[in-house]
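FAQ

Q: What does a record look like?
A: Structure on top, sequence underneath. For example:
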């Protein structure tokens, strides 16, 4: 049987492994950490650093295709892997999404709307951008940010110097503040043959910079829903993409604005586990394995709630709730801000 290689051993890797196993695949993860969520459910684990080129070559030799659960894989590791096996989604999706500036340039190049943005290299460039964009604005590191980390809101131009200091010398971009009414995301998929399918958009609520809930159906007009799905398809096609992608959108009166894209399964797609015959994890495995995409049409209303840190104390109660499906990641320690699991609460179909 075929073996799916997965870079990264977190909860996304874990749920990808479970989905792969259900389709009869074996999985092999590459993850420097030891007792990680995916290691509990994968067949093989290369516990080596991404700088270990021999280990990467062995890993590639042990799998049929390489995919990943996070986008910050070092370029040098990808170079080694690419010589031996297909990487899906491909290098271009990673190149574009590893850097917020490259990503914004790609999106605007496609004719899609993003927040106004500027490359920030020093204090004068930040001051000039603030002058042009006005406040509030958000200064973000170009790389490695997640869960709202590496970003700072600037409410007044006088805060420029302090905000720049928080970037600790890392390359940054300034984004104009988008006055959105709410946030939604599209989880899209594209197969090896170019077939595209999107899940119903979900409505996302963040708390302290971290996704708190995703609800389907999202508050969207028919036109907005069509728009959201079509723009996701445009992104997938432009990248000749293979796999599942998350596209985060701001909903405004003037239309949809793309916040960011993630070249992988996405936290805001976890509702599909209880809302669709084929969820985002199976859809991703199907795509990277060269299978036809599955039926991702939504048959239920779902609210996905992330269980973060102390939320784990509520697990015994949630376990007794009618209509609640629990997904726990097997992480040993519940630290503040750490994603420990999620619960999908299923309602009637609409
Ligand atoms: P993720 O965990 O989704 O990868 P991230 O750290 O990459 O998060 P962003 O998605 O850029 O961060 O921003 C996190 C949240 O902050 C957004 O979902 C949105 O609520 C708010 N936000 C970010 N950029 C803007 C903006 N330009 N205007 C208004 N709100 C914003
Ligand atoms: Mg992000
Ligand atoms: Mg985001």
């Amino acid at each position: 049987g075929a073996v799916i290689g997965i870079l990264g051993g977190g909860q996304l890797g874990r749920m990808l492994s479970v989905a792969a196993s259900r389709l009869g695949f074996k999985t092999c993860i590459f993850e420097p950490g030891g007792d990680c969520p995916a290691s509990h459910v994968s067949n093989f684990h290369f516990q080596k650093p991404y700088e270990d080129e021999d280990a990467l070559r062995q890993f590639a030799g042990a799998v049929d295709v390489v995919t990943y659960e996070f986008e910050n894989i070092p370029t040098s590791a990808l170079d080694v892997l690419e010589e031996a096996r297909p990487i899906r989604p491909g290098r271009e999706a990673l190149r574009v999404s590893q850097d917020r500036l490259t990503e914004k340039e790609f999106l605007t190049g496609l004719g899609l709307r993003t927040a106004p943005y500027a490359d920030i290299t020093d204090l004068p460039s930040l001051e000039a951008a603030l002058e042009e964009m006005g406040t509030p604005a958000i200064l973000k590191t170009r790389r490695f940010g997640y869960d709202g980390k590496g970003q700072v809101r600037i409410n007044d131009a006088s805060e420029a110097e302090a905000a720049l200091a928080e970037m600790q010398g890392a390359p940054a971009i300034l984004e104009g503040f988008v006055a959105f009414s709410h946030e939604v995301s599209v989880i899209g998929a594209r197969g090896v043959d170019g077939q595209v399918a999107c899940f119903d958009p979900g409505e996302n609520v963040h708390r302290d910079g971290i996704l708190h809930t995703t609800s389907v159906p999202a508050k969207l007009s028919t036109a907005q829903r069509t728009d959201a799905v079509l723009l996701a398809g445009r992104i997938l096609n432009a990248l000749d993409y293979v796999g599942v992608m998350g596209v985060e959108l701001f909903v405004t009166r003037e239309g949809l604005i793309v916040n960011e894209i993630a070249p992988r399964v996405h936290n805001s797609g976890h509702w599909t586990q209880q809302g669709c015959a084929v969820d985002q994890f199976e859809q991703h495995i199907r795509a990277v394995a060269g299978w036809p995409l599955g039926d991702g049409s939504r048959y239920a209303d779902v609210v996905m709630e992330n269980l973060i840190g102390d939320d784990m104390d509520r697990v015994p109660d949630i376990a007794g709730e009618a209509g609640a499906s629990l997904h726990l990641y097997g992480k040993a320690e519940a630290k503040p801000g750490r994603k420990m699991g999620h619960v999908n609460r299923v309602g009637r179909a609409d």
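Q: Is there anything notable about this one?
A: Residues 146, 260 surround magnesium ion (ligand 2) (CB under 6 Å).
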